[in-house]
Specification:
Elements lengths: L2 H30 L6 H28 L2 E2 L3 E2 L11 H21 L6 H24 L4 H5 L7 H19 L6 E2 L2 E2 L7 H21 L8 H31 L4 H16 L7 H25 L8 H19 L12 H31 L6 H6 L1 H6 L12
Antiparallel strand pairs: 1-2, 3-4
Membrane topology: Multi-pass membrane protein
Subcellular location: Cell membrane; Membrane
GO molecular function, one term: ammonium channel activity
């Protein structure tokens, strides 16, 4: 192999390893933002998202996503992908797929049957995510043909997970004690240190997620990668700072959970346009993302009364959609602010609506069937005692008891 080809392959593998490490970040965020009595259950869900997703995506999902296009809608499926020269891409796309599944876990934490969740995770990674991903990233998908831009997956990965999470959380229903007499009650997470460490790990992993999506680092791609690192970091920082000051003003305190979610929102928001915008555009996208996530979390919790313990619907679904739309505004080539008119913005809107609709409709169908056949929710006693003891036979913190 030529040196440039070796460098590019090595870059993709290294970035895939960084994205793999994001599973640890998701586990820590979800565990930290929820109660101690469900920690082991959250560990198991995140571990199985990666494990089940890896097997399912290799077995058939990768070819559904990247196989020769059938009608610009779906790839030609084949079983047990084994093309030696493409193993680096299989790995990189596998860890992306696992990310989409893990997003759902946080929104339905603390009250969902583990067995039902496993089946849904399998179907998301095998069918739901690969088909909509084909529309954008395979090269011959119908959204690619329209000129839709989602460089690293604000919509392809994050909004798919976020919109699936919205439907799942609505169908499962709120945790016991979350709403009384129409009022939303806080059910605080048990360890903000875990939550903060998880966000730092996710922020680090995003330097594989976005720059890795260049799929090369040789030649001119080296400068492209460096630029993507900067746009990614600026948006995350702006999202965190804006969420901090907005909640400080609104609540009178410097809110840690919202600030952490602000950083994640900035990361999700920039993911679609990280290669298409300049540093100033990334900074503004981060600001918008930090504002949107605060109001979205409040709206979903207090108005829609959908219980999302970690804010996953807002961070990944809502902000993912907003970030994708903002590519049509801030893209230096064709964006509204750069003389491109409303054309790109319109294409971005089509992609956001189409993929969001696909994720929500398919999730509703799958979970409605699972609800009828298996049930979605644990019993009241299991929920009150904690899923750790009933689903897994263990207390994560036996010295503290199960009432935390």
């Amino acid at each position: 192999m030529e040196t440039d080809a070796v460098l590019d392959l090595m870059w993709i593998v290294i970035c895939g390893i960084l994205v793999f490490f994001m599973q640890a970040g998701f586990t820590l965020v979800e565990a930290g933002f929820t109660r101690a009595k469900n920690t082991s259950n959250i560990i198991m869900k995140n571990l199985m998202d990666l494990s089940v997703g890896s097997l399912a995506f290799w077995a058939i999902g990768y070819t559904i996503m990247y196989g020769d296009s059938i009608g610009s809608f779906i790839g030609t499926p084949s079983l047990f992908y084994d093309v030696r020269e493409d193993m680096h891409n299989l790995f990189f796309q596998t860890v992306f797929c696992a990310t989409a599944a893990t997003i759902v876990s946080g929104a339905i934490a603390e009250r969902t049957k583990f067995s039902t969740y496993l089946i849904f995770s399998l179907l998301l990674t095998t069918i739901i995510y690969p088909i909509s991903g084909h529309w954008v990233w395979q090269g011959d998908g119908w959204l690619t043909g329209l000129g839709f831009i989602d460089f690293a997956g604000s919509t392809v990965v994050h909004s798919v997970g976020g919109w699936a999470a919205l439907v799942a959380a609505a169908l499962v229903g709120p945790r016991i004690g979350k709403y009384t007499d129409g009022k939303s009650n806080a059910l605080p997470g048990h360890n903000m240190l875990y939550g903060a460490l998880g966000v730092f790990i996710l922020w680090l992993g995003w330097f594989g997620f976005n720059p890795g999506s260049e799929l090369a680092i040789s030649g001119d791609s080296a400068n492209n990668v460096a630029g993507i690192v900067i746009t990614t970091n600026l948006a995350a920082a702006a999202g965190a700072v804006v969420a901090l000051f907005l909640t400080w003003i609104r609540y009178g305190k410097a809110d840690i959970s919202m600030t952490l979610n602000g950083a994640l929102a900035g990361l999700v928001g920039i993911t679609a346009g990280c290669a298409a915008v300049d540093p100033m555009g990334a900074f503004i996208i981060g600001i918008v993302s930090g504002i949107v996530v605060v109001f979205s979390i409040e709206f979903i919790d207090k108005v829609l009364k959908i219980d999302d313990p970690v804010g996953a619907i807002s961070v990944h679904g809502v902000v993912g959609a907003v970030g994708t739309l903002l590519v049509g505004v801030f893209a230096t080539d064709g964006g509204l602010l750069y003389g491109g008119g409303f054309g790109q913005l319109g294409v971005q809107a089509i992609g956001v609506v189409a993929i969001g609709g696909w994720a929500m409709i398919t999730t509703f169908i799958v979970l409605s069937i699972l609800k009828a056949v298996m049930g979605l929710r644990v019993t009241e006693k299991e929920e009150l005692d904690g899923l750790d003891i009933h689903e897994h036979g263990i207390d994560s913190y036996p010295e503290f008891g199960r009432d935390k």
